[in-house]
Design a protein that fits this description.
Length: 453
């Protein structure tokens, strides 16, 4: 019985040294993927394409959010299974992964049309409408919209996955499932062949269980290497931690005391500069993102909204965009570069990385964010993208990673934010934190099921 390495770097090394047969590794991962699909309900379609042999990462298994075109297959976008289409050509990012040797095992579930911060019932490979389950605890929420990607990665069935991030759709499910999620700098990754929700805000994002795997995936798909070369040792990077607590003037920014305590202790132990007051331009950027998103959803789905065929989330958001003054959208669009310049000037003169909370509460139970349920909490549902959406408007890179457990044993994650094209700085620092917290094995979701604290 072969044993799969924990990370892609170790996988690559094992294949290179002939200690791992790519074909056998692929078959084992494929079998695990099929088992995971039955248990977690996160697969929309299986692909039976064999791996390409004699490449650096031959047979390493991935699967991706069902928003990407494949040769002869159009994605279902969470509203249906994929369909055969002679006009469909493989998305650029998927082709680049294939050229590196990665095997694509299937299409993963998402909130319909990538328009919800929580997982929802979607048509799966079992031909049933099912909601994917969190492998850490089936009662906990799975964030959206890249829900299937996070579940498949957290389950250990695949090494990584591509999702999309418009307001936090990669980072939110990464947080709820205890894995890493990177929203790269705007424009770093080519979006050709990806179905969009909001063209101005959408970004292809990556999910994996370790920073090294994120780095390998990113290197495989970037359009051209515009990344800033990282030179400083991670311990020399200047880091500011923002923890909005009861001391903050804006009460809506206050986070749970337990979460705040964990984050404050984390920053103090690592010698980070600690900031409690408001983050300049964050609230304004959040507002601008909301204006742009609602306007572009309205434009993208105008016909289906008017005919009553759109999902409730698309209809609600799109109607806001269709009824708001067009001048709002024009202003948000025209001021975007100015807001970015102001934010960078205000925060990155003396700081290399800003770390924010990912969420103000413990990971909710699914019932707490399900509209209509007796336990439904509007505040917990709305808070899911509270600290993520402003990053999309600014176009900055952001990486979410777990750092601890809260009092109930649920992962607590942070969000690292950097200057444009400093994505690798974030990855480097995440690797530093990963080693300090989790040792040399990388971040594995099993940590959150164990007795570690």
């Amino acid at each position: 019985m072969i044993k799969l390495p924990n990370t892609l770097r170790l996988y690559q090394k094992a294949v290179k040294n002939h200690k791992l047969d790519p074909q056998a590794a692929f078959e084992l991962q494929q079998a695990n993927f099929h088992k995971m699909a039955k248990k977690s309900h996160c697969v929309i379609d299986f692909y039976d394409k064999p791996p390409t042999i004699n490449l650096p990462l031959s047979g390493a298994a991935l699967a991706h959010k069902d928003v990407f075109e494949q040769d002869q297959r159009s994605p279902g976008l969470g509203s249906r299974r994929g369909i055969t289409s002679k006009r469909s050509l493989q998305a650029v990012s998927l082709k680049r992964l294939e050229l590196a040797g990665f095997a694509d095992l299937g299409a993963l579930s998402l909130s319909p049309h990538a328009c919800s911060s929580v997982a929802q019932d979607v048509p799966t490979v079992a031909d049933k409408n099912q909601t994917c389950l969190n492998p850490l605890n089936p009662k906990w929420i799975v964030g959206g919209s890249s829900s299937g990607s996070a579940v498949a990665v957290a389950s250990g069935a695949i090494y990584g996955s591509l999702g999309t991030d418009t307001a936090g759709s990669v980072r939110i499910p990464a947080f709820t499932c205890g894995v890493m999620g990177l929203k790269p700098t705007k424009g770093l990754i080519h979006k050709q062949g990806m179905a969009g929700l909001c063209p101005s805000l959408d970004t292809i994002g990556l999910l994996a269980r370790s920073s090294d795997d994120i780095d390998i995936l990113l290197e495989s798909i970037i359009s051209r290497n515009r990344l800033v070369t990282h030179t400083l040792r991670p311990e020399l990077l200047r880091v500011t931690g923002w923890v909005p607590t009861s001391k903050t003037n804006e009460s809506s920014q206050t986070i749970d005391e337990n979460i705040a305590t964990i984050l404050e202790s984390f920053h103090q132990n690592l010698g980070h500069t600690l900031k409690h007051d408001h983050l300049e331009y964050e609230a304004s950027a959040t507002q601008m993102q909301a204006i742009m998103m609602s306007a572009e959803v309205g434009l993208t789905y105008r016909k289906s909204i008017q005919k009553g065929l759109a999902t409730p989330e698309v209809t609600e958001l799109g109607l806001q965009g269709l009824t708001q003054p067009t001048q709002w959208y024009d202003y948000a669009t025209n001021q975007r570069s100015e807001y970015l310049a102001r934010f960078v000037q205000a925060h990155f003169q003396f700081t290399d990385i800003i770390i924010t909370p990912t969420y103000a509460h413990s990971i909710p139970d699914a019932e707490e964010v399900t509209v209509g349920h007796a336990r439904f909490s509007p505040s917990k549902r709305l808070a899911l993208h509270r600290y993520t959406s402003f990053v999309n408007y600014l176009g900055l890179p952001a990486l979410v990673m777990p750092i601890a457990k809260d009092n109930s044993g649920r992962p607590v994650s942070i969000q690292l934010i950097g200057k444009p094209f400093h994505d690798r700085t974030l990855i480097t620092y995440a690797a530093h934190l990963e080693k300090l917290i989790f040792g040399n094995e990388g971040i594995l979701p099993t940590y959150f099921l164990s007795g570690h604290s």
